[in-house]
Amino acid sequence: MKIHVQLFGKLGANLGSEIELEILDKEPTIQDVVNTLIQKDPDLKLLLLNHEKLHQATILLVNGHVVNRSTTGLDTILNSKDHVRVDRIGFLEIVGGG
User: Fold this and answer.
1) Calpha distance 54→87 (Å, rounded)
2) CB 43 within 8 A of CB 68
3) pLDDT, tens digit (0-9, with 9 covering 90-100), for 71-82
4) How far apart are CA 78 and CA 87, in angstroms?
5) For the chain, how many structural domains are there in total?
6) Which of 5, 4, 3 is nearest to 86 (CA)?
7) What is the mean pLDDT of the chain?
């Protein structure tokens, strides 16, 4: 199944800001997306994960809804119409302003 993924900021430095991931599972999950991204760009592991768990600064959205802090979290099942957005909030981004 193909999943549309948008990567923001540093996350898209090597793969680009919008990619299509081919995930072979019948019911792909957010965990599958994270694993596939890391396989394609191993540098993402340090940005997305902390001790094999999702880094607290990582934000995952499916169709505009934050899923990494929901009850299903990384086990959220995806379908081919879903849009996944991955971002990372750093300290300067939080306190910065205009």
Assistant:
1) 12
2) no
3) 778 889 999 999
4) 18
5) 1
6) 5
7) 87
